[in-house]
Amino acid sequence: MLQLNQLCCGYPSLSKPVVDPVETELKAGEFVCVIGRNGVGKSTLMRTIAGLQPAISGSAHLMSNDLAQMTANERARHLAVVTTVKVNSPGLLVDDVLALGRLPFTNWRNQLTQKDFDIINNAIEMTNISAHLGQPLNSLSDGQRQRVMVARALAQTPKVMILDEITAFLDLPSRVEIMVMLRNHAKQNNGIVLLSSHDLDLSLELADKVWLMEGGQLHDGSPNHLIDNDLISDAFSSQDIGFSKSQKRFILAENESTPHH
Amino acid sequence: MTQLSKNNDMRLNRSCMTLLCLISLFGVVVFALTYGQVHISFDRLFSALMVTGDDPIAEQIVLSIRLPRVLTAVIAGAALGISGVLMQTLFRNPMADAWSLGLLAGGQLGVALIVTAAAFAGPAALDFISGFKGIGLTAGAVIGIACFAMIMIALARRVGNITLLVVGLMLGFTVQGLVSIIMHFANRIGGRVFSGWNDGTFAATQMADVSWLLVPIMVGVFLAIISAKGLSAMQLGETYAKSIGMNTKSLRWLTLTAVVLLVAPVTAFCGPVTFIGLIVPHFARAIARTSQILPLLPVAAVCGALLATTADAVVHLPWEQHFLHLNAILALIGAPVVIVLLVFSKHMRGTV
Predict the structure, then answer these.
(1) Which CATH class is domain B3-351?
(2) pLDDT tens-digit profile of B134-156?
(3) Domain-wise residue ranges, chain B
(4) Which of A7, A123, B1, B185 could cysteine-pair with A155, CB 3.0–4.6 Å?
(5) Partner B, chain A 35-64, Cβ-Cβ below 8 Å
């Protein structure tokens, strides 16, 4: 459903692209986790797919439509984005934020129909944020805000959701809850959820497919495929931490060599 | 509340509050037209407004002195109120307005340069400018405000809200310094023209000026209405606004053009008018209880007009001496409001 054709991303000011050309395809219903170390280009790749920055070369097609050729409004009808950017605006209520999720579908006065309200209320239920309705966004904690932003993205009824490190501010139960919810949403909706996270254990556990980014390269495959080919341990292991294939999780390295004095 | 639905109560509440403001506005307007050095009864006011010719003195006072002033205050207040909403949303800064971000300083500089140029060109040119404010001063104000607006919008992408406000303040001081140097080299008449303009007032317009004032402002209001939907999205920041389908680049230009069209004519005809654009959006949000931009615009317009006419009415009460200045009254109302907002409002926490 989502096809990347030799998509190469980065910034014109840099001499070499951040991410080498990527050729891959995601199918409907897939929950995909993007993992990789800091600065490896996860955000750049996701922003490029989302049309928030131009590609250096290549293209991303959604159901054989070039995403870069769409108008911003058309794209917003198919694709929703949540980032870690902190939203901070005077007097902005949670209700207003959720209503903005319907903006690509409303008329020039931004009036909501009953159908819009039903969709928003469904998103409120899925993300468990009904307690925050009527409150200013500023009064919420970072984790609560992030839930509201996810609800807003769900209200956009997108085919593809792109979520960049949204679980960073959430506690462990919330993190699991949101990731499981998004995974189910992708299945039920026949959509695609693309989520970048530093939560490797959880990503490997829940993802249908993993995009592992390392040194400008993207390796994709099922979590087991990447584990079996030692790609995960190559990308993340250091002298302090190693990946246990049997337990499918990272463990602290045994401190065998005592420091020399 | 566990569900979101069409909130008719709130909409009704908003309409009632707006109506209340409109009635107050009407009250202040009638008061300003009747009360003054010469008291004019309702009967005389009515016959003067109908231009019956029965009461030439009342007609003279109402039609050529009070009505232009009051109309100017209503139009200017509404324009400044709307421009404040646009500025605060575009910059995502609750303390942004044309004055606090230094746009008015740009207007002052533009007008000072035009006046000086005219003064050097000769007394005829100066007469032309001071007699026919419509074009000369408006051009100066438009150019100055537009230039400074572009500087600030470029700067806003690189620095934080507080830095931007301080830069706006410093631009104001810089321009004050520049202007007094320019005036030092201009001749005395040019200086008088400028300092007359530089003291904000709604009383300097004639009936003929009002249409000059109104036309660009109407265009500005139209652009504000068009950009309202995008500005609602802009509250989430540029990335999110793009991701929900907004062309942020054209939106920015559209909004800035609207701001210039709303603020420049007011500045040209009334001089720099402070605080209205800064505090009115906060009243409007409190009344409208939404941060959607479109329903906010009419509320901000009415609130702005009410504040402007009230301040103007206080200035023009039949005082023994005429030393009250419009901006002094506006500062006495506006500055405490800003302080209270910054210190106590939970909506503002963490946004400046």
Answers:
(1) mainly alpha
(2) 577 788 889 999 999 999 999 99
(3) 3-351
(4) A123
(5) 50-52
